[in-house]
Amino acid sequence: MKYEKHRAPVAVILAAGIGSRLSPLTDTCPKSLLTVGGSIILERMIRNCLSCGMSQFILVLGHRAEEIRKFVDKTFRGIRVTYVINDRYRETNTGYSLMLAAKAIGTAEFVKFDADVVFDVKILRQLLDSHHANVLCIDRNIALEDEEVKVIADEQMQVLDVGKAIDPKRALGESIGVEKISAATGSLLFAALSEMMESRGNFQAYYEAAYAQLVDQGTPFHALDISGLDWTEIDTEKDFDAANAMFSSPVTTISRDQQKLLDDAAKDTVTQQHV
User: Fold this and answer.
1) 122-164: per-residue pLDDT in tens?
2) Which residue in 215, 95, 98 sits closest to 151, CA to CA?
């Protein structure tokens, strides 16, 4: 793992969904404001970004948007946050929400997060440290079924296809919902999403459909293998329980230098145990 400092991209968080499959937990609370391991899900995500030097945020909101806005404004005073509202969140999906963020993102490099993903900060560090321009984080240790967003990649980890409809037997792993997108690719991505959303029949499309289109047209995407690191997507109550079992303590903001000290100490402990 690298520790050198570099200019961090913008964090784009998609948090417009209703989270109906988590009912009754989400009957009176947005999914992103549920608590996992003593910290609110969205707080974990933002603090992980801050730990990696990311200080500019774009949040796409819809369901219970004002509650989420109030939480972020109260909890994180002084950070740069732009709110984008998806008024059509009941009839649209992640592709539409990401398209709406185009103006706020502009020509910036960005990392896109699904707001219901809880992850170890090391995953984000590895993503930011990757020299590849466009990167999808994938887990190869997942039992792939129809629900998962699956990724096909070659031996060099170049993405060949991405989407839910992919045959699990052909897939390398699951895309976890955290991706780095370059400024140059961003313009292509938003053009593809805009064209896609001209048809109401595509309102329920996921943003991965646009990724797949760009890959098919020759835009390179790299698959970053984060297998073995902790993360989970929270769609159901079973997922929620698994997340609380995996992340048992509140989130803290850890700088790269602090992370290096922790990693070095862990290595020393392992070395001493084998002496």
Assistant:
1) 999 999 999 999 999 999 999 898 889 999 999 999 999 999 9
2) 215
pLDDT, tens digit (0-9, with 9 covering 90-100), for 39-74: 999 999 999 999 999 999 999 999 999 999 999 999
Q: Which is nearest to 16 in space by CA: 222, 256, 203? A: 203
From CA 237, how far away is CA 129, in angstroms rounded?
Answer: 33
Give the 3-state secondary structure percentages of the chain, helix then strand then coil, rounded to 5: 40, 20, 40
Q: Which CATH number, 3.40.50.300, 3.90.550.10, 3.20.20.140, 3.20.20.20, labels domain 10-135+177-269?
A: 3.90.550.10
Q: Are 47 and 41 in contact (CB under 8 A)?
A: no
Q: Which residues does residue 85 pair with via DSSP β-bridges, in sequence order?
A: 61
Distance CA 198, CA 242 (A): 38
Q: Model pTM?
A: 0.90
Helix, strand or coil, per DSSP, at residue 39:
strand
| The token pair that represents 187 in the structure block | 């313009």
Contact 183, 144 (CB under 8 A): no
Torsion angles phi and psi, residue 19, rounded to 5:
70, 40
The CA–CA distances, whole Å, from 156 to 132, 160, 164, 188 equal: 12, 11, 22, 23
